[in-house]
Amino acid sequence: MQTVNIHEAKTQLSRLIEQAVNGDSFVIAKAGKPLVKVSRLDAPSDRQVRRLGFMAGQITVPDDFDRMGCEEIEHLFGRAE
């Protein structure tokens, strides 16, 4: 991702906006410190990409999921008391 300083962003704003519209986000920095990220509005944000529960109803978890393999584990490591 490209990083530009504030002065360059002001002088090249039209070009940078066109770049963002085409999907190439960029960061504006001041004195080398990143301040803002510029991306097109319909670009997915980090929150949109990570969807908790997106497969709800499509998979099932067995009731004994937390006990699966316990016999093998007990055999390998001995019975926990």
UniProtKB/TrEMBL annotation:
InterPro entries: Antitoxin_Phd/YefM (IPR006442), YefM-like_sf (IPR036165). It holds the Pfam family PhdYeFM_antitox. Antitoxin component of a type II toxin-antitoxin (TA) system. Belongs to the phD/YefM antitoxin family. This is Antitoxin. The lineage of its organism: Bacteria, Pseudomonadati, Pseudomonadota, Betaproteobacteria, Rhodocyclales.
